[in-house]
Amino acid sequence: MKSDPGYLYHATTAERAQDIAKEGLKVHTPSHGTDQHAWPDGSTEKRSYFTRKADSAWQFAPEEGKPAILRMKRDAAVHKRESTGDFYSKKKIPADKLEILGDDKQWHSVSELAATKLGKK
Asked: Tens digits of per-residue pLDDT, 36-63?
């Protein structure tokens, strides 16, 4: 999977993507869906994480459910760089700022997800 310049990628599941379409991408504690008690920098504040590498984003998808990849344009006002080289946000991200990779291998607006089945229009 090719990474596009200026974009950051986030892994989730298709089911959670439906919720994100309605409520936006929320921030969570480090233990949400994982067995970790702190983020790599030692913080325990709520965050959502992103990577610049689309092809490695899949490894961060939750174990249960069909994996889904979201992306958004990098925004210095929203994204902070982590010591690992990844990026995080401490703010909820509106659905209209996010895109999801559809079954048709095209990017679609997450805010339209609730109304369509991606790749099967």
From this structure: 888 888 888 999 999 999 988 888 877 7
40 CB-contact burial (10 Å; exposed 0-12 / middle 13-18 / buried 19+): middle
Give per-residue burial for 107-121: e unless 16+ CB within 10 Å, then b. Answer: bbebbebeeeebeee
As its CATH architecture, domain 7-115 has Alpha-Beta Barrel (3.20)
Q: Where are the beta strands (DSSP E) in the chain?
A: 7-13, 48-50, 67-73, 79-81, 87-89, 99-101, 107-109
Q: What is the pTM of this model?
A: 0.87
Q: Where are the domains of the chain?
A: 7-115
